[in-house]
Amino acid sequence: MVKKLQEETHFDKVEVKSLYSTFNECATDGKLDRPAFKKAIGKLEEAGLKKLDDTPFPDRMFELLDLNKDGTVDLQEFISGLSFLCKGTPEEKLLLSFKAYDIDGNGYITKDELCLMFKQAWISGFKALCTTHGNEELSMEELNEFAEEMATLFADNAFDTLDTNKDGKLSFEEFKEFALAEPKITATLNGFKREVTITF
Q1: Where are the domains of the chain?
Q2: pTM
Q3: Over the chain, what is the mean pLDDT?
Q4: Contact 173, 137 (CB under 8 A)
Q5: Top CATH class, 1-88
């Protein structure tokens, strides 16, 4: 099993074994439900991978990896998905990022979807920074208002620039142009530990 997963993913033998162990620690009957998936994601830093549990990504990742929509993620889905997330090619990461923003899965990103993900990212990032530095100057209500304002501004600017045909949605090609111009958009989609970013 380990050899097969190594051959089919971007992970080496040591990484596959570590992920396999993490999966088994959290799984029930060989599958992860949403809470167990979040627990497994929280253990990724121990495996030397990018920590994601302080971002809005685990929920979306679970939905993307649950290919048969049975409410669980199996070992193959878990390791293959993380392979794209952490060690995929730039094109693979961009596609995964696009799917994360495309909440309803219709192949396009609307301004509301972009705004929602930005807002969640700002809130998650700010909370993580407050935890790291032991400082929390904004109330939750103020943080929500601030995140909403910044997310709306960012989404408006993105659509003004990139929605070239003005149809109110971004295709993958339009999103790709956006992501390449704003590299922090995919900053959490890498396998390297770095400071928490307040953009998704």
Answers
A1: 1-88, 98-191
A2: 0.69
A3: 77
A4: no
A5: mainly alpha
